Amino acid sequence: MDIWEELYAAARKVQNARAISPFIDAGGVAAALLTKAGNIYTGVCIDTAASLGMCAERNAMACMITHGESRIDKILAVMPDGKIGPPCCVCREFMMQLDRDSGEIEILLDYETRKTVRLKELVPQWWGYDRFAL
Q1: Helix 89-98 crosses helix 56-66 at what angle (to 10 degrees)?
Q2: Span 30-89, pLDDT tens digits
Q3: Which of 10, 81, 83 is closest to 43 using CA atoms?
Q4: From CA 64, how far away is CA 4, in angstroms rounded?
Q5: Which residue in 49, 82, 103, 124 has the most C-beta neighbors within 10 A?
Q6: Beta bridge mates, 117
Q7: What Rg do the C-alpha atoms of the chain give, in angstroms?
Q8: CB 7 within 8 Å of CB 105
Q9: C-alpha to C-alpha distance for 106 and 46, rounded to whole angstroms
Q10: Which residues contact 97 (CB under 8 A, 6 or more apart)?
Q11: Is 12 helix (H, G, I), strand (E, B) or coil?
């Protein structure tokens, strides 16, 4: 099993679309990430009526941070149909702000072909590099 299979399986394990309340749905999208330390963290999307929810990727990153880590090596998100989807702009920005080397995070774009992209390719000319120099 390659690492993308392992991450995909971890995400699918927590993916479970459900209504939490009349205002909140969760679990339609799931994400899994691999840290530089070799640990896997997962998360699901939480969608709310008042736009207070979070994407699966940010949920997985919050889990990672809760466990004392902040450096991502690889990440993927599984859409409701089982296909892979790229992170939204908010998730891209969040990842960029985690670490000076976050631009090197490998993001899976297609499970079948194993097509990947580096985060810096999705966020060209990112505004915050200078702040890491401080």
Answers
A1: 20
A2: 999 999 999 999 999 999 999 889 999 999 999 999 999 999 999 999 999 999 999 999
A3: 10
A4: 18
A5: 103
A6: 107
A7: 15
A8: no
A9: 24
A10: 128
A11: helix
Give CB contacts under 8 A, 24+ apart, made by 20-23.
20/46, 22/49, 23/48, 23/49, 23/50
Give 58-98 as a 3 state SS string.
Answer: HHHHHHHHHCCCCCEEEEEEECCCCCECCCCHHHHHHHHHH
Whole-angstrom Cα distance, residue 11 to residue 75? 10
* Token representation of residue 20: 């939490």
C-alpha–C-alpha distance, residues 96 and 71, integer Å: 10
What is the pTM (predicted TM-score) of this model? 0.95
